[in-house]
């Protein structure tokens, strides 16, 4: 397959919910720098090898800012979380971006996450109680996967619990590039913006023990802090980023562990494996969504191929995470794999700010499920699990379980 005779459509279609498309291994082996056509019809370059993906993601020159005139559009509508005006408000590179990360990152330290564990476990217990009360079979995605991260991030932002459902909807419109029309997306984003604006104003008048109150307390840009609109967009961004990704991952993680009963039994026998099991499901997640787009403002060489300035690159972390040159028995799930330097959270200056939050949520959910529902099993054959349609974040439509 020479680079110019065939252009792959991207995302690569895949019927099986938990397995990777066959094309990944072929691309890694024979065409690690591949030409692809995005849903918008624009061309981009797809990277699937571990070293290449790592190199591009770790290079601070390459950002997700896809607003350059020659950057590829991801979807024909041109909307979505990667290219909205909101993405411009938080600085995307250089010293300003690092400053923003330092201010916000204080909230996502491992120490803070440890302190949140008891409240996360309590939320998980309550949600499982409600699911059990409704009776089997239940949908683990709707009953536990989706509400838990929203409740946790709402607590961190000091947002009233009563508003959680609206957040779920707003978040979905920002992240799903195909499910909503332009008018509906814009209306939802305007409502979300208005809500957060009022919320920040209220926090300024009456600060609480939450992330937004602390960001306000630092002061404005002249005091080394953020402007009001940056605080507002940070709140929106954390809510969106912290919601759908982890929500979907909870469902996928449990499905992957229940797909082979032996895995679940092994965790029941040795719960100390929860931490490494979570990392291994993150590495083997074949349905993680679009991958990370990066814009190259200057010519770059990757795997011996020269990529011209203005190229839009899509880094498939999920394909890279199955690269045999980086992981022994890369296609196998090893619940005790350590070290596990997977790229699920990216790497370098733009690695996922909330990764310690996501890891903690996933670990807590798994610990509580193993303790509360040891007999948990999938209520349908693995082959019947269906993927969510939509581009930015991959997930399962439902995760039917019984216990």
TrEMBL record:
Alphabetic keyword roster: Heme, Iron, Metal-binding, Monooxygenase, Oxidoreductase
Transmembrane segments annotated in the record for this chain: none
Lineage: superkingdom: Bacteria
Keyword Electron transport attached: no
Cofactor(s) needed for function: heme
Keyword Cytoplasm tagged: no
CDD domains linked to this entry: Cyp158A-like
The family this protein is said to belong to: Belongs to the cytochrome P450 family.
PANTHER family: CYTOCHROME P450 BJ-1, P450, PUTATIVE (EUROFUNG)-RELATED
Protein name per UniProt: Cytochrome P450
Source species: Streptosporangium vulgare
């Amino acid at each position: 397959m020479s680079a110019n005779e065939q252009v792959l459509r991207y995302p690569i279609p895949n019927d099986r919910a938990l397995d990777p498309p066959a094309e990944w291994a072929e691309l890694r082996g024979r065409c690690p720098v591949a030409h692809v056509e995005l849903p918008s019809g624009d061309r981009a370059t797809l990277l699937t090898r571990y070293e290449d993906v790592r190199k591009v993601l770790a290079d601070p020159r390459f950002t997700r800012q896809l607003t350059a005139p020659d950057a590829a559009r991801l979807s024909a509508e041109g909307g979505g979380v990667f290219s909205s005006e909101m993405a411009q408000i938080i600085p995307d590179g250089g010293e300003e971006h690092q400053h923003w990360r330092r201010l916000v990152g204080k909230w996502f330290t491992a120490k803070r996450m440890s302190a949140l564990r008891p409240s996360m476990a309590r939320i998980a217990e309550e949600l499982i109680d409600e699911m059990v009360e409704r009776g089997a079979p239940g949908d683990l995605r709707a009953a536990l996967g989706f509400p838990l991260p929203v409740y946790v991030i709402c607590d961190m932002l000091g947002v009233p619990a009563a508003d959680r459902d609206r957040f779920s909807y707003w978040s979905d419109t920002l992240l799903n590039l195909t499910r909503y029309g332009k008018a509906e997306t814009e209306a939802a984003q305007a409502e979300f913006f208005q809500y957060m604006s009022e919320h920040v104003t209220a926090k300024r008048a009456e600060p609480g023990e939450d992330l937004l109150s602390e960001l306000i307390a630092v002061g404005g840009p002249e005091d080394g802090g953020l402007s009001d609109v940056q605080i507002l967009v940070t709140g929106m961004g954390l809510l969106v980023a912290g919601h759908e990704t982890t929500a979907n991952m909870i469902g996928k993680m449990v499905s992957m562990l229940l797909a082979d009963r032996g895995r679940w039994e092994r965790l029941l026998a040795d719960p100390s494996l929860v931490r490494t099991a979570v990392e291994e499901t993150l590495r083997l997640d074949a349905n993680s969504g679009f991958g990370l787009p990066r814009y190259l403002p200057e010519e770059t060489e990757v795997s011996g191929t020269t990529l011209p300035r203005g190229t839009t690159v899509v880094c498939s972390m999920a394909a890279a995470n199955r690269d045999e040159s980086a992981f022994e028995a890369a296609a196998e799930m090893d619940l005790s794999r350590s070290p596990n330097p997977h790229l699920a959270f990216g790497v370098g200056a733009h690695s996922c700010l909330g990764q310690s939050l996501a890891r903690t949520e996933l670990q807590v959910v798994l610990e509580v499920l193993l303790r509360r529902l040891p007999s948990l099993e999938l209520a349908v054959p693995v082959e019947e699990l269906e993927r969510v349609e939509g581009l930015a974040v991959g997930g399962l439509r439902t995760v039917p379980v019984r216990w």
